[in-house]
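Researcher: Hi, I'm a grad student and pretty new to this. My advisor asked me to get structures for two proteins we've been looking at. I'm not sure of the right format, so I'll just paste the first sequence and hope you can take it from there.
Model: That works fine. Here's the first sequence with its structure tokens right after it:
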Amino acid sequence: MTETTADACAGTLDLTRSEQWVLHHAMLRELEAAADDGETEPWWAIAVLEQVESQGTLSLTCFEAWRVKRSLRTYADDAPARDVDAAEDVAGRLSAAYESPPLAAP
């Protein structure tokens, strides 16, 4: 089981069924892209999938929220019309709920 590391800006978002489905699909695309490129599966995408599948809510670190937001915005660019609003809504809620992207360590 994948574990996430808590940080100062972690919070929880409740998701509708539609938002859960869109988030699940976007995370599967991240995993498939990594597999296609011969890269290691992104741990953050696995952690998000596990949360959505078991809880229907998200409790993310700043880094995870930043990655998920980027993934959802990319997904919304070429998603089926029925998914665009849900992807943009979750990405917007992540922007409002979490701080800006984490800084790289010096």
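Researcher: Oh nice, that was easy. Here's the second one.
Model: And its structure:
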Amino acid sequence: MAAEVYSVANAMEQYRYASGAVHVFWNYFQVVSVGAAGFVWSRKRTDGLTGALAWAIGLLYIAFAIARNYAVYAAQLELVVTASSIKEFSKNSSEVRGELIDLINALKPFDATTVRIWHGALSSFTLIAIAATHPRVLAWVRHLLCR
């Protein structure tokens, strides 16, 4: 079996694919997060959610957020590794001409761990928004505000 030969064009296509995957994961996360928070906050303010429904939405959101966090992290890590490989390859390649150097140097994806932390923080804020609609949490907040 002959070894496959990769070019800068193949590597750039892989980078584009990985970047697209990151964006899809983030978009999906945003839609579900806004939907979950919007649903719980659209309920009547005086009633809040029943305790069981608030718990169910919160637990389902936690499971979703953990899975998305891993997916976003893995896709971002692939993006970082691909960018690094392209830059390393371009240093010693005759295939890369001067006009492509600026494009390759512009490949600076965010660190995967930083993205994972931001995703976790946004997930936490959404979970707080969901938890804030629980009847006991609402009663506690009213108690604090009415002192």
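Researcher: Is there anything I should tell my advisor about the second?
Model: You could mention this: The chain is about 80% helix and 0% strand.
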